[in-house]
Amino acid sequence: MAFNAVKEKYRSKVGEVTLGATKEQGGTRGYTITVGGEGALPFLHFEGEIPNRPVVALEVWDHAPADWNACFDSYFGDVYNDAAAWAKKCVEEYGADLIVLRLKGADPDINDASPEDCAKVVKDVLAAVECPLVVLGCGKEEKDNQVLPVVAEETSGENLLIGVAEQENYKSLTAACMVHKHNIIAQSPIDINICKQLNILITEMNLPDDRIVIDPTIAALGYGLEYGYSIMERARNGALQGDKMLGLPMIGNVGFEVWRTKEANASVEDFPAWGEQEPRGILWEATTATALLQAGMDIVVMRHPKAASLIKQNIEELMVANEV
Amino acid sequence: MFIIGERINGMFKDIAQGIREEDPTAIHYWAKKQEEGGARYLDINTGPAAKDQVKVMQWLVEKTQEASDLPLALDSTNYDAIEAGLELCKRPAMINSVPAEWPKMERVFTMAAKHNSAVIGLAMNEQGIPKDADTRVALAMELVAAADSYGIPMEDLYIDPLVLPCNVGQDHGPEVMNTLRQVKMLADPSPRTVVGLSNISQGTKSRELINRTFATMGIANGLDAAVADACDRELIEAIATARVIMNLDIYCDSYVDVYIKQQK
């Protein structure tokens, strides 16, 4: 009996989203990055085309983070107060594909930076690196609604990925992304129904679906990773079966979630049985990301350079075609 | 479940008149309207009055494709007409239909394989429509075996268990539901299933209510497609809802609109 590989036939594939714009395209980026386009489940090259590999982004803040673990000091300590230098370091030394700039300083309880100041930081980072940029607000709705439209306007043409839009708060950001030709992150609270509905609401405002990236909201290993995992799987299955409102690339804030856990941060003195803190934290972040790559994540947002480098290696190995 | 729009049929006055006067206005209108309504295929039937079935089928196929990109279901017992229509189809079509009879199966499955088209197989033969589910399933199995021997993938074979009006053939209802369930177990991957939905309500009062109730029950029993009225909004809503309840589509608040958009 000959061996016949079972190959699933899918009706559809994930849409592609391109981030960044070069000079010819009206921006200033050295290159663009395209994510999505998968025609099969994650890394099943023998069933369908996986045209774009997942990308690894490193997180940069516009404000020296007060609560990051001390193990980050030796990587970023000298650039904590200079987002542009920080971003440059992430790309040149640590090999980030993308920069995720979090405008934490806009938070009214931190720096309460003005929209203009925030836009300036974004522009400084754009001048320092040539990779495409993801820009996130501070997380406080009211302030982000003031800041992000100004950022979108001041960086018109750069084709940024801006976030986040949520079900109760998507209109002003969607409008800004439409007018100034940026992409948007549609975030839902670990809920596939809201995820799908939000994408519909955004496309109903006439933002094309090739400019939306889904943030299904993920949690770290040990803190509900499996909920995000199964939702991403379900979205990807829906996408392949023809559900266009779920057929969009996915992004996840892995670093942000992992470095909130006790296991990533606690010292060996406090928990001797867990072993050394830094390698533990690196592996906590890398393991979380590895799992989510198997669920279909396209943009992995990380924090620790060593974890990021492990994931880049993992992606490289998974992108080797497994034809049967 | 998806809908094969039933409206481009020479049995309807406006279509018959269009055919007679070679005026495609009504054909264009219904092609677009059914597509907007949520049809995934458009059924094309020349009607019994047309003298030259081959020519009329070709004309209908051409005129329909001018107005819509949906794939077509060529509906005729005249296989020369179907074959002539298949030659003109821009997308893989569906043949409506073939009973479990030789040499009809030979003729139809040969042209289906050649044109990469789907086939509706009727669970009946020379002896007419069976009374019970067991006989229907046995005939379905003959269709499955025949289709397989001509290299037709099971996903392209649509078994029609044959629906009778619920006022005169009331005892057929449960037999049809039973057949739908069992057909799904005849092969792996399983053949698909289809019904001529509007038959269930022939000659009854409140036809739309009976149609959409049957549709939701059919979906719960494994019904994949129906030749039906794609412009019946309440039918579409019932189908979209049944699909959500059966976990065939992922729920969202706009699930009816999403269902309609996804058919294209």
From TrEMBL, chain A:
Record domain CO dehydrogenase/acetyl-CoA synthase delta subunit TIM barrel: where: 16-303
Coiled coil start-end: none
Domain of life: Bacteria
A GO BP annotation: one-carbon metabolic process
SUPFAM superfamilies associated with the record: Dihydropteroate synthetase-like (SSF51717)
Pfam family, one: CdhD
Cross-referenced NCBIfam families: cdhD, PRK04452.1-2
Name recorded for this polypeptide: CO dehydrogenase/acetyl-CoA synthase, delta subunit
UniProt source species: Dethiobacter alkaliphilus AHT 1
UniProtKB/TrEMBL annotation, chain B:
Domain called Pterin-binding: residue spans: 1-256
Keywords attached to this entry: Cobalamin, Cobalt, Metal-binding, Methyltransferase, Transferase
GO molecular function ontology, one term from the record: methionine synthase activity
Keyword Methyltransferase: yes
GO cellular component entries: cytosol
One GO-annotated biological process of the protein: tetrahydrofolate metabolic process
UniProt cross-references to Pfam families, sorted A to Z: Pterin_bind
PROSITE patterns: PTERIN_BINDING (PS50972)
Keyword Hydrolase appears in the UniProt entry: no
Family to which this protein belongs: Belongs to the vitamin-B12 dependent methionine synthase family.
Record's protein name: Dihydropteroate synthase DHPS
Origin species: Dethiobacter alkaliphilus AHT 1
Lineage: Bacteria, Bacillati, Bacillota, Dethiobacteria, Dethiobacterales
